[in-house]
Write a structure and sequence with these properties.
The structure is a single chain. By secondary structure, the chain is α/β, with parallel strands linked by helices. It has 2 domains: about 70 residues, lambda repressor-like DNA-binding domains (434 Repressor (Amino-terminal Domain)); about 180 residues, Endonuclease, Chain A (2-Layer Sandwich). It is about 45% helix and about 15% strand. The chain contains 12 helices and 6 strands. Strands 3-2-1-4-5-6 form a 6-stranded mixed sheet, with helices on both faces. A hairpin with a 2-residue loop joins strand 5 and strand 6. The two termini are about 25 Å apart.
Length: about 280
């Protein structure tokens, strides 16, 4: 039997506001949780959890709710606010630009970038990086990061080019089970019409980008913005001199890194080094 909904406070968080609005729209439409579950193809348990603020709405439920209730982009807009509650403030502007970008290029020295992470890999990172956070908070961080990946599935998805340092393959985030699933998820994206992945091996030695993360975001007007992160800081740059230098550094890394075919072989070898194992839960 469904438990009574807890009292939500819309002024307290976007998460509570989302739950209140979901319950209100459902009641206005005269729908039970069972009926709404059938319409949007999400479980009654998940919908009840969202209504009570116990769970975050998993993408792409917001679009389905807007379609079911005829609310335009109401829930999609609320989801944007919820995501921001679970993203570092320094990353806010980067997320906004990422959602609009027609081309995304990034170098990540030691970790798989967020747009490519599996839920289990995300969770392992957050459990270590956000010690003391509640399980509900971790769920929120995972859901927010997963939602970013929607841009890869949409019509007119951006062209993406990722360069990963070899450490991203060797750093056993979450252990062998998680890493095996994560590396397997990279392989289909190594060389497609819109995605490229290259590996920068340790043998390259020092170079301008090996200290952290660099993201180049090209917008529809062809302007480029740079996001650079490392050691707990993150900063956006759009002045021409810095952008030109960053684009040059990235192009140089492209030339030095392994080809997509070679990179796929390295990913496969790293995957096998973790041994066969069952797929992890999320």
């Amino acid at each position: 039997m469904t438990q009574p909904a807890r009292d939500l406070e819309p002024s307290r968080s976007a998460r509570d506001l989302y739950g209140v609005e979901l319950r209100r729209q459902r009641q206005l439409s005269g729908l039970s949780l069972d009926r709404l579950s059938d319409i949007v193809n999400y479980s009654k348990t998940h919908l009840h959890g969202v209504e009570t603020g116990e769970r975050l709405p998993l993408p792409p439920i917001s679009e389905k709710l807007d379609a079911a209730f005829g609310t335009g982009a109401l829930f999609q807009g609320l989801w944007g606010a919820v995501k921001r509650e679970y993203s570092p403030r320094r990353f806010d502007h980067c997320l906004e630009l990422e959602a609009r970008a027609v081309r995304i290029q990034s170098f990540n020295a030691s970790l798989v970038p967020g747009l490519l992470q599996t839920p289990a890999y995300m969770r392992a990172l957050f459990l270590e990086g956000e010690r003391g956070m509640t399980a509900q908070g971790i769920d929120g961080l995972v859901a927010a990061r997963r939602s970013r990946q929607e841009i890869l599935q949409r019509d007119g998805a951006p062209e993406c080019w990722w360069i990963l340092g070899e450490a991203a393959l060797r750093q056993a985030v979450g252990g062998p089970v998680v890493m095996r699933e994560q590396l397997a998820a990279l392989l289909p994206l190594v060389n497609t019409r819109r995605t490229t992945i290259q590996i920068a091996p340790f043998a390259l030695g020092a170079c301008a980008l090996t200290a952290g993360t660099l993201i180049l975001l090209t917008l529809p007007d062809r302007s480029v913005t740079v996001y650079q992160e490392g050691g707990g800081y993150g900063e956006i740059f759009d002045d021409r001199k810095f952008v030109t230098r960053s684009v040059g550094d990235f192009d140089y890394m492209k030339a030095c890194a392994l080809s997509p075919r070679e990179s796929a072989a390295w990913i496969e070898a790293a995957l096998e080094s973790y041994g066969p194992c069952e797929s992890p839960g999320i």
